[in-house]
Specification:
This protein has 192 residues and is of the alpha+beta class. It has one domain (2-115, 163-188): Heat Shock Protein 90. Helices cover 41% and strands 24% of the residues. The protein starts with a strand and ends with a strand. The structure holds adenosine-5'-triphosphate and magnesium ion.
Length: 192
């Protein structure tokens, strides 16, 4: 864990980059939850949009355009669904930002929670970033069967395990009594 500003907490390899205005979107979390298909519509749109950065022909070390689009659609759907499911309190804005980098793409999705939600989420993040994702995945799978839980808790783990997505997280307490949760996801464009 790295301390950025006195009140902010960062987990994982956070990247501080200026926002490119043409690659961002804001939506309302409640409206996404009320019309669930908006999650997949938004993720499919941005997956296609970003995959156009990939040339039609790539060398064999790199993922092709279609492969990139598939990974991004899966990843962004997971991130938008989490915002729709877990946003809490009066501040319901969700912000999406994306960057195209040399050998990777970086996405940042922000939603807001009540301050008391930070500690349990941070505990889960710590566990996820500091353990073997494969072991954790199967452990969680067994727990789900035993406990019959609602949320499977496998979203991030599946993306780490199957697609090598690198996550980092930031919590920013706001003056309006909510805490902003920023999730960054880095997708490598090289074959594993
Ligand atoms: N954007 C978010 N804001 C607040 N809490 C979150 C957010 N994303 C995840 N969480 C917390 O982290 C947990 C793990 O998230 P993850 O996406 O891995 O699983 P899930 O959404 O519960 O289940 P699944 O994705 O398998 O349907 C969630 O159950 C929730 O408690
Ligand atoms: Mg999820």
């Amino acid at each position: 864990m790295t301390q950025v500003q006195p009140t902010q907490k960062v987990y994982g390899a956070w990247q501080q980059i200026p926002v490119t205005p043409s690659r961002q979107m804001t939506v309302d979390a409640q409206q996404m939850a009320a019309h669930w298909r908006r999650c997949s519509l938004s993720s499919d749109f941005w997956a296609q949009y970003m995959s156009l950065f990939i040339p039609t022909r790539v060398t064999e070390e790199y993922l092709g355009r279609g492969e990139v689009e598939q990974v991004l659609a899966y990843l962004l759907n997971e991130l938008f669904e989490n915002c729709a499911k877990f946003s809490n309190g009066s501040h319901q804005l969700v912000r999406y930002v994306a960057w195209s980098q040399d050998d990777s793409m970086l996405f940042q999705v922000t939603n807001h929670i009540l301050p008391e939600g930070q500690a349990p989420f941070a505990k889960l993040i710590d566990e996820m970033l500091n353990n073997d994702p494969h072991e954790l995945y199967f452990q969680r799978l067994e727990e789900n069967v035993e406990l019959d839980l609602d949320g499977s808790g496998l979203g991030y783990l599946t993306l780490i395990k199957d697609f090598g997505v690198q996550f980092s997280f930031r919590f920013r307490p706001q003056e309006n009594g909510s805490t902003a949760v920023d999730v960054q996801a880095k997708v490598s464009l090289q074959q594993e």
